Amino acid sequence: MSILSGLASALKRRVSSGQANANAGAPGAIRVEGAPPVRESRDTNDLPVPLAKARERLRADPGNADAWRSMAATLMRWGRHRDACLAFREAWQRDGSSASIALGFAVVAWDAGFRADAEEALRQAIRIHPASPDLSLALARMLCSAGRSAEARVLAERAIAQNASAAPALMTLARCDRDEGRHDAAEARLRAAIALDGDNPHAWEHLSAALAAQGRVDAALEALVRAADLAAAGDVPLDTTLAHAELLRRRGDFAAETDLLIAALRQRPSRAGHFMLAEALIVQGRYRPGWRQFEFRKFEPAMLSERPRYDCPSWSGQDLEGKSILVEAEQGIGDVIWFARYLPLLQRLGARVIFLPRMDMMRVSRRLPGIDHVLSDGEVLPAFDFHVKLMSLAGAFGTTLASIPQSVPYLVPDPAFAEKWARKLPSDGRPRVGIVWAGRPDQPRDRFRSLHLAQVLPILRTPGIRFYSLQKGTAESQLVEWPPEVEITRLGDAFDDLEDLVAAIGQMDLVLSVCTGPAHIAGAMGKPVWTMISDPPDMRWLVAREDAPWYPTMRLFRQPAPGAWDDVIDRVARELALGPAAWKDRLATHAPGTAEPLAIASPGDADDEIDAGLGRVAESRHGVVMFDPGEPFVARSIEYYGEWLPAELGLALQLLRAGDVVIEGGAGSGAHAVPMGRALGPQGQLYLYEQRPAIRSMLAENLAAHGIGIGMLMTRRLGGHPAEGFSAEHETIDDLQLDRLDGIKLDAAIDGSSMLEGAEQTLWRCRPWLLLACDDDASLHHLAQRVREFSYRTWRMETPLFSPDNFNRRDDDVFNGRTALALVALPEEKDLREPLAGCVELR
To answer: What DSSP element (H or E) covers 511?
Structure first.
């Protein structure tokens, strides 16, 4: 077996156990799918011994590449991925001609986010060892995972020519085929790989994806179940939850999808999984828990990259009387129109509403009700007290099916544009029907929702109707080659502004649309609109109903089965033929009732059946974070105040410097680890201990979301020297054998006295600062006495859980005066540059 296979298998075990670094779960993490499972011993009790031996060799011979490689291998088994990467880098720099070292370094470096270094190492090794199939195949997989399929294909084919293992090479080529849209070719390669290695779960997993891309959902599900069974039997880490959930969604089995996701996410939270759960809940009308999960969209890379650093909190129900709030438009035109109905509700709470629009909706936004000021392109932001994403308002107002704001119409054409289009479209006595058959092709599910114009021909042949194309974008070109006997007037070319589309819709008697922006515009205008819905439906259209509770004048025409557009087209054509009077009669039978008044949702609200044990999202002082609502103090503080013990965090940030090495024990979901990791910077190191598996997964997700690649999630419990010594469950700080340690921060979950018993050598050698949580004054004074034996000065720090200047600007103390106690300790030789705020020195 090659070193690449062994390293990748070790990496896969680390990822599966939730100990991966911040980048390991990201798309592109390298797996060697074709490698058989490695049966390494689970007994890692001896890890400090080989590490000590490697260090001893290096003291004698710092340039010994083999010693660096031994150290890297030991650190990988330990789960110390960043340390292993640095050790492999040292080995590679000392022996760049070694293929095995280059492979080891490349796999670890790529997974840790150092992709340019990984690629450089492999390309250098390939130049030295051009006949090595392992090198070519490893680089092919990396490039393929980065979306560089053309380059990857050349290398994979070279690996086959060099007698690489056939099944892994075939799987790599199949991945290239899939990336290029050649899913049938990918299927053929994967079946060939399975014929060679039928027990490889990754081959079955990729076969499932290739089948799903061809619309063969049932077969894809069978292949995925086979992959999961093989992985479990072979102890191969493979999480098929999200792929399984997506296939259930494709089958329209939202209840099963929901059950699957809830069970999985309670054990192992993930940003993507929670967002999938949001869609599954919302489409079933389970709005309150659905909106809470919908906040996970804020972890999407595009939203995170666009998130401004406002020096004010996100609005989640705070008093708005006399305040200003910035509302940010998000996602597509249809989404903005859909949720614009909430803007007047903010004004009713006494707020001045400042709206940050999509640039292509500037003019229309100025006429939406409930807005005091629309920001122009390049305008300097005025002062405001709160900000909120537009689509978060449904959850903030506790929207249910019975309380959807229905003040329709809330969008009317601009008078000047209305007059312009009234002149352009004079009435000839026939009813006017506008049609939109396609959405934006870059929308991820566009191939399911959009039609080709030729498919709607039966509709356009309905006699006695004047049809107008409201289509914009690439699909508009389909009008060029159109049967001359079918009459349709093309309007899209004349739409210079969204106002043109709105005004043209205003001239229509009826709008026919697929699930895209004009359907929402027509619905918000109170125009009769028939929306043609794919199966499974988008979350906004719910299931098994012909009305749309968001738009009283909308009817829904659903596919009876995935891809069954012919049935939809036939039904629409038959209904059109009945004439305008019948259209109105049918519409009246589907109009929903009057909505109940909305109430602001309170932080902490929960649906026990669904929310129990599920993670949530909060906008905190230091960014968007996932947290466990079951943590009584931390969760309440993060959700309600947008922070957790800010004074203790502030002290830690005061003590650390960029590039430092810090240990945090009891890190939780990362309320402090994220800002500390950011402050330490890319050259720092952050060892994180969190024993609860679900919380540890949240911690990994939060680190990944914020690009904190220096965090190492340690697998063992941190403490003192147990009778049995180093074990699979326990380690001490001295066991880590760190050359440098600048700070130790412990939560109350870690016993400080026990930690000290296993850190004596490190405390004398590295002299780190200490910030140790304590239960009471008695334990604090006992701990202080022990710490002073190491020549440390000590301070008592008592911090209220409620801070009057909390980030979310809440006035009430939900903790009733409760405080947190901590011991702060600094080496006696340390020169204090500034006093320790909020601390009292102990003598």
So the answer is: strand 510-514
Per-residue pLDDT tens for 10-26? 333 333 333 333 333 33
pLDDT at position 401 over 50: yes
- Give the pLDDT confidence of 566-618 residue by residue, as tens digits: 999 999 999 999 998 888 876 655 445 445 556 787 777 777 788 889 999 99
- List the structure tokens of 427: 């009435």
Q: Give the separation between CA 338 and CA 354, rounded to whole angstroms.
A: 18
Q: Which of 779, 554, 625, 563 is nearest to 269 (CA)?
A: 625
Q: Please give the Cα distance from 488 to 635 (Å, whole number).
A: 58
Quickly tell me which residue has 């298998």 as its tokens.
9
Q: How many CA atoms lie within 13 A of 266 on its CB side?
A: 11
Contact status, residue 425 vs residue 507, Cβ threshold 8 Å: yes
User: Which residues, including other chains, have CB under 8 Å from residue 256's CB and lie 6 or more apart?
Assistant: 248
Beta strand residue intervals within 123-165, DSSP E: none
Q: Which residues, other chains included, contact 380 with Cβ-Cβ below 8 Å and sequence gap of 6+?
A: none
Name which residue leads in pLDDT, 479 or 8. Answer: 479
Q: What is the pLDDT of residue 719?
A: 86
**Its pTM surpasses 0.85:** yes
Smallest CA-to-CA distance from 764 within 791, 784, 786, 742 is with 791
Q: Give 454-457's long-range contacts (Cβ < 8 A, gap of 24+).
A: 454/478, 455/565, 455/566, 455/569, 456/512, 456/569, 457/483, 457/486
Of 20, 40, 39, 36, which is closest to residue 202 (Cα–Cα)? 36
Rounded Cα–Cα distance for residues 650 and 647 (Å): 5
Per the prediction, the chain carries an average pLDDT of 90
* Buried-exposed string 632-654: b where 16+ CB fall within 10 A, e elsewhere: eebbbbbbbbbbbbbbbbebbee
466 backbone dihedrals φ, ψ, rounded to 5°:
-100, 110
**What are the φ/ψ torsions at residue 389 (nearest 5 degrees)?**
-75, 140
Cα–Cα distance between 827 and 744 in angstroms, integer?
A: 12
DSSP-H helix ranges across 593-709: 608-611, 634-641, 646-655, 673-680, 693-705
Q: How many CA atoms lie within 13 A of 357 on its CB side?
A: 24
25-60 pLDDT tens trace: 333 334 433 332 322 333 455 788 889 898 999 999
Q: 367-387 b/e with 16+ CB inside 10 Å = b?
A: bbebbeebbeeeeeeeebbbb
Question: What's the one-letter identity of residue 252?
Answer: G
Q: By the 8 A CB rule, do 187 and 214 touch? A: yes
- Chain segment 179-218, per-residue pLDDT in tens: 999 999 999 999 999 999 999 999 999 999 999 999 999 9
Average of per-residue pLDDT across 673-681: 97
Is 742 within 8 Å of 826 (Cβ atoms)?
Answer: no
Q: How confident is the model at residue 490 (pLDDT cuts 50, 70, 90)?
A: very high
Q: Map residue 840 onto helix, strand or coil.
A: strand
Burial of residue 543 (CB within 10 Å: 0-12, 13-18, 19+) is: middle
Residue 703 near residue 670 (C-beta atoms within 8 A): yes
Instruction: Report CA-CA distances (Å) from 753 to 264, 730, 734.
Output: 36, 15, 14
E strand spans, 360-416: 373-374, 386-389
Which residue is associated with the tokens 């409930």? 370
- Please tell me the distance from the alpha carbon of residue 813 to that of residue 803, in angstroms, as a whole number: 8
